[in-house]
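I hope you will forgive my troubling you with a question about protein structure. I should value your view on which stretches of the chain appear to form regular backbone elements. Here, with my thanks, is the record as I have it:
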Amino acid sequence: MEKRHLNFWQIMTMNFGFFGVQFSFGLQQSNMSAIYKYLGAEEAELPLLWLAGPVTGLIVQPIIGAISDGTWSPKFGRRKPFFLIGALIASIALIAMPYSSSIWMAAGLLWILDAANNIALEPYRAFISDKLPKKQYSFGFLVQSFFTGLGTTLANFTPAILVSFGVLALTDKMDNGIPVSTFWAFGIGAAASIITILITVLTTSEYPPTAEELQEMEAAKNGENIILKTIKDIVSAFKEMPLTMKQLIPVMFFPWYAMFCYWQYLTSALSLSLYNTLDQSTIYFNQAQLLTGNLNGTYNIICFTIAFAMIPIAKKLGAKKLHFISLAIGGIGLLCMPLLNDIEILFTLPFGNGIEVSQIYLFSFGLGITWASMMAMPYEMLASSIPTGKTGIYMGIFNMFIVIPMIVQIFTVQYFVYDLLDQNPINIIRLAGIFLVIGGFFSLFVSQPKKS
């Protein structure tokens, strides 16, 4: 079946639910460590409490991918039922999270929330190659990059916006010590999750399976157990993995290992680099923590503003070269981070009394370009090599190339790499920069099917 060329707004609305999913992920990234700390967690406990994300992604996405490939409802479609189920469960978990009365209640809700987000996220990657002709893959995945940056940015800044506009006071706390601004941010996230998914579901149709695919689905229903079939399909997909997908393993491993290093150690690295202290009781460490939020918000702003500008560049250079250049820019930025300061002002934004942007933001600008490419280019390289009818399962397996580096990073950095690098968080950020460049270098060697 020849797929219809979609216009700009059709591609935007089909991806609008991606905004809600990423808003939810953004709330986790910017608030979960703080929630754990409010509930009494020690610093050393935080890495393991963060295991929910990579582990649920590792387990859930390949299974959901395999099941969604074999799903079809004339009324609801193939991927859309999973969008709805994931969004509904995620919304409930988001509403419940601020009411957590213990560390393990919050950790349990995080496992549920991550599982729900992964149920919605995995079919969304497959949705692009289901709906769009190959020549629009770049556009479709870069629109997802745009919504990734926009959703995460708004999630990062929502508590600050509520306080800055006087809606809530910074000192307002719930009985468990969690700020009221966090409660409202998670409530807004729950609404965003379900509303944006509904917009996609109600405005976007899906192509029906071919007669051959329907026959296979029917045979599967009347044959072996769905769980056994799913496991069998996953094992078979691993054995028949396309060469392009195998070549993308290092392209994914090094950058995602790097990003987990960045998220975990940036605050400490900034505190040591800019203020020469790692003492958490000092005002300097607090300033580094505040700066971390601003820098993370900045690279996400760059991500969603640069995403559309990258579309013609991707067509001109190709996904491989663009990905190499984008990762090299971010990697060099992280390597230069210890050389930058927050004293020299680059420019002043004309908001309120003026928002000064210092030299340290330079690396964040570069990282935004890297992040936009990481959210799009590997998927474009992969999509054209996936066999027809196997998009969901292969996108699910591809997500393992993201979560396995995270799991490896959690254990290697905590028990080996940190000591090897003189227990210096600045060296961890340098390692992240090197790994970004290495990941980009490997992308140059990915072979792709020739375009007709």
The chain has two domains: 1-208, 242-447.
